[in-house]
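Re: the 308-residue chain
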Amino acid sequence: MMDKIAVVGAGHVGATTAQRLVEKNLARSVVMIDVLEGIPQGKALDQWQAGPIEGFDGRMVGTNSYAEAAGAELFVVTAGIARKPGMSRDDLVKTNAGIVRSVAQEIKQAAPKAVVVVVSNPLDVMCAVTKQATGFPRERVMGMAGVLDTARYRTFLADAIGVSVEDIQAMVLGGHGDTMVPLISYTTVSGIPVTQLIDRATLDKIVERTRGGGAEIVGHLKTGSAYYAPSAAAVQMVEAIVLDKKRLLPCAAWLDGEYGIKGVFCGVPCLLGRGGLERIVEIELTADEQAALEKSAEAVRSTMAATG
């Protein structure tokens, strides 16, 4: 358990993340920060009062000030505008870059030793904005994308094959967008290669549905984007860090030559523990997977240029 974890943004993703964190007893205090007066205060008070029912003793605090988050050991950044139908994650880049840059500067002042998990879109680019604005080492700035993309991939596979999601082992790398890279060569069902259980045409459709998973939800909601699964994914990363679990999870990390890629955030297998990103694990990819990962990294790099 940590003494204090802060969540920036009290919208659907932020509030649901904060609720999951306090219910899992990952911190003595969970601080939810938002610029809108009354919103974080009201939601936090409501969540705190669920403690006797859900069995948690952590304190929920809602605030418009980073003063309450001073010394927090970990921040989850969800601030920014959400996608609307027809918008890509990249369409958000300029607006959200300004928001996230301001948030990152506040974090640097309030908690200079914190680990930061970025959820704001476009994810990989917002990680770069956060790293630049805070000046934190790559071990303390990472992004939530691969865990979510992998969860979507596993969900669709389990449904198609007719097995429990628990028996699907898979990993999705690359940028959080249309160029993400589901690793078919490493996808198994209780150790059985997925290609032995499902035909390639169906598998290709599942890969495409995974890539468009967020847009599919936006299309249904019309005025918002996904938040239940994204918050669960962020909390899985936080839990791995808080409890020093040494989980090997696909996360957006700053690459410095790994996989032949340098100077960009991209989803890769990451070992998470109390220090944050403890190690990037390089695995052997097929030629097609390596090419797709490089293409995905270049797509992230081109979007980065739009932040100025």
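The longest strand covers residues 262-273.
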